[in-house]
Write a structure and sequence with these properties.
This protein has 3 helices and no strands. It is rod-shaped, with a radius of gyration of 16 Å. The longest helix is centred in the C-terminal third of the chain and has 14 residues. Helix content is 68%, strand content 0%. The chain has one domain.
Length: 41
């Protein structure tokens, strides 16, 4: 990861890369959506 290289391969750079990745964001969005209570009409 270029960002990690620019930050001297710090662990925080790798963690941020994972958190910002599309697969992680999609999983996170799905969990939040499923956790929301259904609205009654």
């Amino acid at each position: 990861n270029r960002e990690a290289e620019a930050n001297d391969y710090r662990m925080s750079s790798f963690i941020l890369a994972v958190v910002r990745s599309d697969p992680f964001q999609m999983i996170r969005a799905r969990v939040v959506t499923e956790a929301e209570p259904q609205q009654e009409r």
